[in-house]
Amino acid sequence: MKAFIFPVLLITILLSGCKNTKTTQDEAIPVNLSEITTKAPEMMGKLIRIEGMVEHICRESGKRLFLGENSFKVLATNAVPSFRVEWEGSDVIITGFLKEDRVDETYLANWEKELKDGIQLQLKEATHTYDAESKGLDESAITTQFDQIKGYREQIAAGGKEYISFYSLEIESLTEKK
Question: Structure pTM?
Fold first, then answer.
């Protein structure tokens, strides 16, 4: 009897390991783009689907896309390594996983110190390019960065938490709507 159970168990394990676990766009939870930041805490770690118009694509790296009127940030991944500038103005359906970046006083103090010390920053990939880039500002300008720091401190003070959250989507797939 033991000789019979072991091969059956082994075959079962092997077949379950071959199961296709790739997620599809149909399995993603649809989230309205206008509600994404309010629903973000409950959506962390889940595959979601959002729809909207591509407002801007980073010309320098092609690794950031801004969606909708509120310029929601979508990040390139191994699944979609870069975005094409031709997609600007296109309506798209995007699936992916939410990412949260927290900005707190420690983060702001370090950023401010780096600016004052004249340290060359790799700003294009850093968290603190959210506002500037989405608004088309020169995020490498020192004054723009100091203005962002001041604005973030005001948001933290008004928000009742010791940090502010920025949400972005790490992309799994993109489909252009026709």
Answer: 0.69
